[in-house]
Amino acid sequence: MPDERSGPSRRQVLVLAGTGVAAISLGSAGVIGRWGAGDGADDRAGTTPRGDAGGSALTEPDELRSAGGVLEARLRAVAGPVTLAGRTVHALSYNGSVPGPTLRLRPGDRVRVDVENALGAATNLHVHGLHVSPRGNGDNPLVRIEDGETFRYEYDVPPDHPTGTFWYHPHLHGLVADQLFGGLAGTIVIESDEDPELPAARERVLVVSDVSLDGDRVAAAGPMDVMAGREGELVLVNGQLRPSARVEPGSWEHWRVVNACTSRFLRLRLDGGELVQIGADAGHLAEPVEVDDVLLAPGNRVQLLARLGTAQARLTTLPVDRGDMGMGMGPGMGPGRGEQDATVLLELTGGATASDPPALPDRLVDLPDLREAAVDGRRTLTFAMGMGMGTGMGRGMAFTIDGREFDAQRVDTPVTVGTVEEWTIANVSPMDHPFHLHVWPVQVVARDGEPVQGPPQWLDVVNVPAGRTVTLRVRFADFPGLTVYHCHILDHEDLGMMGTLLAEAEPS
Length: 508
Ligand code: C2O
Ligand code: CU
Ligand code: CU
Hints:
The chain is mainly beta. It is 6% helix and 41% strand. The strands form 7 sheets. It has a 7-stranded mixed sheet, with no helix packed on it. Strands 24, 25, 27, 29, 30, 31 and 33 form a 7-stranded mixed sheet that branches. It has a 5-stranded mixed sheet with strand order 1-4-9-8-6.
């Protein structure tokens, strides 16, 4: 995703009076310290691995593949011991590993997933980015699976579904951030024989997540962490701290990267190598794009071709300034502040050979472009943070869309199946909010009113920087039903920054 953050108006934001005072009164010193520049500076993943086993050989999650047009999978969500950052830790997992198994399926497949809940708390399962029905036991974010129960999800992936990298995670409002941070996430790959041919020696799934450990447990988040959006002290790849991998010299690898962090933004760079982006959230790009670095908001995915230019290279994530909580919070409070250095995610060895690398295709896929479409309706959704609007006990700040917190009983946005809408997402808060819509991918057509040029890109998470607007178009092609859109800083979603969308068939 190209960067939209430079520019003079980024900090011309609404500052909410009184915000700092109440927020400080809520935070405990220990929790506040997590964001401070002086605290934890030496024990982040990229600097000192805290005695954890860094450098182990990169592993990949197990795979569950569809066969004969059906994906049959069982995911047991369980609280118990798992290996995380090279240690045995009490965490949450699907089938005993973090991340959970990679689900590989094809357009046109039927998906039948049994989720067995052994967490000791209610949960459910969302397939992020999949264009499938939200009704009944489809990708229904309002399902509730009680502890001890098993729920069968079953739905069809349309035959014309884009191929790409998607993911799954729990979606029970109020518990999403805790359960994802605790370890519950996995990758979904949709692939087909018609995928563009890539000159890649191998493919890897790289799930980036972050976690903070408190002894042998996943650390709980305090009120300040939650409002800021918690960021873990350790940034992991496939549950490993700074693992290493060998690359065939001179060859391209195809990487499917998932930002499965609860709230952390990633800016990925390959020091000592080249990156070419070939896919974003909702499938392939129209053509390969060479990138120096690539920004992933929480929930974003990217497909990359990667190649080493030197004997050793490192995949790193650079600090991202995603704003702060407003006036009075002081420097170092904002997430991402005080982290000047890149965090190393993955160590690579292999290097270049003398011969030229395999050539890349000029074009990948043909993509629809809604910039030329007739628009049936326009609306604005306003993301805000404010004082005195919260309804929960002890809340310092309300996280709202159009002035309201989430209510599953209320329809916020009724749409008609078959129409194209243009939405302007206005962020009037001093912190970035990554907008996410379930079921239907979106095309960004303007930022701050400036039309977006270049080939179309289809996303399902679109960062809306602090004080800015993003305009997107979406075609509600099919799938009547009730679903949601929300901020993908999942702590904010749990605090109420989520709305409902009801798609109804056109009255005949
Ligand atoms: Cu990945 Cu509703 O979320
Ligand atoms: Cu989603
Ligand atoms: Cu947010």
